[in-house]
């Protein structure tokens, strides 16, 4: 639901929320602090690199919060660049440590915004958009945080172990236990039947669409009579976020946030 933004003024504020860097991005003319979209970028990216996508949400009046993953963006660690030189086991462990740690941070940020200021209003609604690793987090958040109103995971997977064919070889027992506790696909029955817009790509070789498609029927079965709230879209292309995907998500969120 794009609006005319040619004469609008936008603001970007960078805040520390419980030591987590948060970008607040909004249209000064039409934003509503009770309509919150949380934007979660992918691995090795940052909120700053995705500002054009945050703009698309802000253009429609959402109050957008961009959160840098651990060791990314404003929290970037030099050792993240060196992780390419680690063996596969250490790289895999690092990825999950970053992803699950970031999920903990997002939960704390959500609590902060819902318990302070306008967030205390019962009309405040939160949607979560995530791309790639951020999408995996978006799938997992409603397992824990039931106040989330809608999610839109994109070029991602609801199975946190997707693509790891020998997890026991690459992950420690401690990490495997933690993933088992939090893995969205294993806990999908605990998620309230909130609206989920899933977007994948035909030629994605990082998180292929098949990782999601093999679970779709079971996900809809667990939603029962509310299974129409799960909408699946498949786009041509590879592991790349597009403006069209954002537009679809903005339209989707406009119905629920």
User: In percent, how much strand structure appears in the residues?
Assistant: 15-25%
Q: Specify the CATH architecture.
A: 3-Layer(aba) Sandwich
Overall pLDDT confidence: 90
Count of separate DSSP helical elements? 8
Spans of 5+ residues with little confidence (pLDDT < 50)? none
Based on CA inertia axes, which overall geometry fits?
globular
Q: In this structure, how is the largest beta sheet organized?
A: 8 strands, mixed
Strand order of the largest sheet: 1-2-4-3-5-6-7-8
Span from first to last CA? Answer: 13 Å
Using only CA atoms, what is the Rg?
A: 18 Å
Q: At the third CATH level, what is the topology name?
A: Rossmann fold
Helix percentage: 25-40%
Q: What is the domain tally?
A: 1
What do we call the CATH homologous superfamily? Answer: Alpha/Beta hydrolase fold, catalytic domain
Q: What is the chain-wise order of helices and strands?
A: EEEHEHHEHEHHEHEH
CATH first level: which class?
Alpha Beta
Classify the secondary structure makeup into a structural class: alpha/beta
How many runs of DSSP E, i.e. beta strands? 8
């Amino acid at each position: 639901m794009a609006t005319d933004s040619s004469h609008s003024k936008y603001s970007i504020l960078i805040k520390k929320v419980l030591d987590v860097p948060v970008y607040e991005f909004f249209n000064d003319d039409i934003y509503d602090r009770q309509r919150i979209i949380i934007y979660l970028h992918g691995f090795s990216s940052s909120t700053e690199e995705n500002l054009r996508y945050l703009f698309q949400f802000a253009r429609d009046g959402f109050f957008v919060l961009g959160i840098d993953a651990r060791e990314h963006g404003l929290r970037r660690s030099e050792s993240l660049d060196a992780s390419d030189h680690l063996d596969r086991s250490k790289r895999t462990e690092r990825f999950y440590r970053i992803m699950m740690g970031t999920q903990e941070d997002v939960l704390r940020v959500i609590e902060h915004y819902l318990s302070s200021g306008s967030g205390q209003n019962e009309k405040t609604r939160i949607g979560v958009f995530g791309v790639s690793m951020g999408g995996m987090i978006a799938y997992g958040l409603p397992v824990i945080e039931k106040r989330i109103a809608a999610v839109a995971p994109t070029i991602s997977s609801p199975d946190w172990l997707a693509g790891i064919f020998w997890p026991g070889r690459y992950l420690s027992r401690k990490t495997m236990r933690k993933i088992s506790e939090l893995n969205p696909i294993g806990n999908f029955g605990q998620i309230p039947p909130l609206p989920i817009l899933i977007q994948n790509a035909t030629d994605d070789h990082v998180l292929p669409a098949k990782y999601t498609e093999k679970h779709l029927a079971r996900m809809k079965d667990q939603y029962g009579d509310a299974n129409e709230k799960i909408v699946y879209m498949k786009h041509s292309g590879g592991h790349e976020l597009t403006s069209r995907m954002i537009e679809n998500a903005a339209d989707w969120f406009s119905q629920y946030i």
